[in-house]
Specification:
single chain, 257 residues, alpha+beta, Translation Initiation Factor IF3, Aminopeptidase, 2 domains, ten-stranded mixed beta sheet
């Protein structure tokens, strides 16, 4: 009888955008709570990455603790919370007519909103002292523009218009029967006008009528204001992940790698 060899599960994958932006080799991955800790640590230590960014279910500390005990510098970079809701086709449509599908003509406005909204945002990149703030911010601008193509049916960007100006945006990805809001922001000059709620209600209604079943969205745990807004719109806390950075350049024995 032939015995088939099995390869270890891979938990990390290349992060070409981060690698290009920061000029180092970056790997990323989300590690399941049931994953073999020793296997994960072996994979991380065997990699040639300068920076490994990994997420684990909140409170699962075996991997970062194991790496630290073996001499690696591991930063707890943030806690990400996911909210979700079931989409309801019977819900009344939003009364506002200020939300529309973004096109390439909105590119400059989206870049400005992302630049203003995320210039001091405390996401996981901000916890790493070796990552340039300017490069982190340029990443948010790039992210905001990444779903403008009208050709990809599973991606979209929506904008909300106020006083003839693009005042906010939300980027969305469809996977299976769910839609996830990937990145969203309202220009600081247009805050507290209910525009974020308009965007959210439009997205809920639009994708419900695309026969999707669930809406997902995430943020850092400290971002209480937006979580209260989500609660008012029917979203509920679903799960949470801790984000860690293992940066070899912070380890004295790395020789400055």
């Amino acid at each position: 009888m032939e015995v088939k060899s099995t390869s270890p599960t891979r938990h990390l994958s290349a992060a070409p955008l981060d690698s290009r932006r920061f000029g180092i080799t970056v790997l990323r991955g989300t590690i399941d709570a049931a994953a073999d800790t020793a296997e994960v640590i072996e994979e991380i230590e065997a990699s040639d990455a300068d920076l490994v960014i990994f997420r684990v279910p909140a409170g699962c500390t075996a991997v970062p603790t194991g790496l630290q005990r073996r001499g690696s510098v591991v930063i707890h970079a943030d806690t990400l919370v996911y909210y979700g809701m079931d989409l309801d086709r019977s819900a009344a449509p939003p009364a506002e007519a200020k939300v529309q599908r973004a096109t390439d003509a909105h590119r400059a406005a989206l870049a400005v909103i992302a630049d203003r909204s995320f210039c001091n945002y405390r996401a996981h990149y901000a916890a790493n002292p070796l990552l340039s703030r300017d490069l982190v911010l340029s990443g948010y601008v790039e992210w905001a523009l990444s779903r403008l193509s009208q050709d990809r049916a599973n991606e979209a960007t929506w904008v909300v218009i106020e006083e003839g100006t693009v005042a906010g945006f939300a980027t969305c990805d469809i996977s299976g029967d769910s839609v996830e809001i990937i990145l969203n922001a309202v220009h600081p000059d247009f805050e507290r006008r209910g525009l974020y709620g308009m965007l959210l209600r439009h997205i809920q209604h639009h994708y419900a009528h695309q026969s999707l079943k669930k809406l997902l969205i995430s943020t850092q745990i400290w971002n209480f204001t937006v979580q209260r807004q989500w609660g008012r719109n029917g979203l509920q806390l679903q799960r949470a992940f801790d984000t860690y950075h293992m940066d070899r350049r912070l380890t004295p024995s790395s020789g400055g790698r």
